[in-house]
Automatic annotation (TrEMBL):
This is Alpha/beta hydrolase. One of its GO terms (molecular function) is hydrolase activity. It comes from the Bacteria. Gene3D superfamilies: alpha/beta hydrolase (3.40.50.1820). Residues 139-355 form the BD-FAE-like domain. Keywords: Hydrolase. Residues 41-61 are annotated as: Disordered. InterPro entries: AB_hydrolase_fold, BD-FAE-like_dom, GDXG_lipolytic_enzyme.
Length: 405
């Protein structure tokens, strides 16, 4: 197991409580989604233990991590359409915001810190078998060291269009949340490239939660206070994880004496009802998103399928988090950009409405003019900014503070 340590520094006050300040924020661009990259240097150790590093460094400028093919900390876009290719809508129908809070995400960007966090990489939390092939699933964990005692846990799930799950993505925002005093674990999960379906991936997330609860003392975790936070396909998995609190069918694998329930869900621009994935879009985008055998179809029906998610079959309905809502479902906060041309903005609205109809605490924010997390790969480098403002991230931190006591 390879382990590396990174650190992060001092705080300053901002809009909704303490926000930490430090190194200058820089932008990392990849061939998919790119978000503000924030990191620090460190030393490596082996043998299953880690100790805080005295070394610090400024945030990276988008250099590639060793052995990786994309810039450090940069998440990738959600592919859809034929063969998982990205289907970008040309027109987006305006959706109802009457039950949502509309924000203008144009304020100051988050600032990364340079000390106070110890990070351990490449922790194997589960080794499931899919189609006869064993997968060692990894997570990276950031533990704040500026305070002692047990800390609330946030599970982060990256996007990747159901075809990839790079746990190294979005380092800047993960570090920012960790810097507010949360243990943050970024989790790899199985995708369609592994021959997996949503059932396998939800089981993976729940397995990671059980693993971390079983190892709570090792990582200074308060096992009673756990939230799940995801973006795009990761937002979908966060929603499924929180909606299915108490459903034992998704609890398979190790550490089954531990609970997989969560106390809060942060869903950023995640799909929900896959039969309505492109409901707000033009004909060409709908055609691509509902193509038979594409990544969305494989996510529901499995590898090699010739089916489409265009029809709300019983299988598609079962893959919709709204069909799993119960009295045990966790509170939600949902975010969507009004100009998202990869996942219809109405996806989070429909889920938000379903949650409220069943008495679940749900808040939804619409970011005026924001796209799908970022569309830097199209040349629009400014699209990164709405998702890493102090205001947007402040709403996430405020929600975590409210629901993780």
């Amino acid at each position: 197991m390879d382990m590396h340590e990174e650190s992060a520094t001092p705080r300053t006050k901002a809009r909704a409580g303490w926000r930490r300040g430090g190194a200058v924020v820089t932008v990392a661009v990849t061939a998919g989604l790119a978000l503000v990259a924030c990191s620090s240097g460190g030393t490596s150790s082996a043998g299953g233990t880690s100790s805080p590093s005295a070394k610090t460094a400024a945030c990276p400028t988008g250099t590639t991590a060793a052995g990786a093919g994309t810039p450090t900390g940069a998440p990738t876009a959600m592919p859809s359409g034929n063969a998982g290719g990205i289907a970008v809508a040309k027109t987006i129908k305006k959706s109802d915001t009457s039950t949502s809070t509309v924000i203008e995400p144009t304020g100051a960007q988050i600032r990364c810190a340079t000390s106070g966090i110890t990070t351990t990489h490449d922790i194997t939390y589960s080794s499931p078998t899919t189609d006869g092939r064993k997968s060692d699933l990894k997570l990276d964990i950031q533990v704040p060291t500026s305070t002692s005692g047990k800390k609330r846990l946030v599970i982060y799930l990256t996007g990747g269009g159901f075809v990839m799950a790079d746990r190294t993505a979005n380092l800047s925002q993960r570090t920012y949340v960790a810097d507010q005093g949360y243990v943050v674990a970024s989790v790899q999960y199985r995708t369609t490239k592994d021959g997996a379906t949503y059932k396998d991936a939800v089981a993976d997330v729940k397995s990671a939660i059980r693993y971390l609860r079983a190892n709570a003392d090792k990582y200074s975790i308060d096992a009673d206070q756990v939230a799940v936070w995801g973006q795009s396909a990761g937002g979908y998995l966060a929603a499924m994880t929180g909606a299915t609190n108490g459903e034992k069918s998704f609890d398979v694998g190790d550490n089954l004496t531990q609970s997989s329930e969560v106390q809060g869900v942060v869903d950023e621009f995640g799909p929900a009802d896959l039969s309505e994935l492109a409901a707000d879009y033009d004909t060409a985008a709908r055609k691509a998103n509902y193509a038979a055998g594409n990544s969305a179809a494989q996510w529901v029906y499995g590898p090699g399928t010739k089916k489409s998610v265009a029809d709300r079959t019983s299988e598609v309905a079962a893959a919709d988090p709204s069909t799993h809502i119960s009295s045990r479902t966790a509170p939600f906060v949902l975010f969507h950009g009004s100009a998202d041309n990869l996942v219809s903005p109405s996806e989070t609205l429909t889920l938000h409405t379903a949650l409220r109809a069943k008495g679940i605490d749900s808040t939804r924010y619409v970011l005026t003019g924001a796209g799908h997390g970022d569309l830097s790969f199209t040349g629009d480098t400014s699209a990164v900014l709405p998702w890493s403002t102090q205001e947007t991230m402040g709403h996430i931190v405020d929600f975590l503070g409210q629901h993780l006591k």
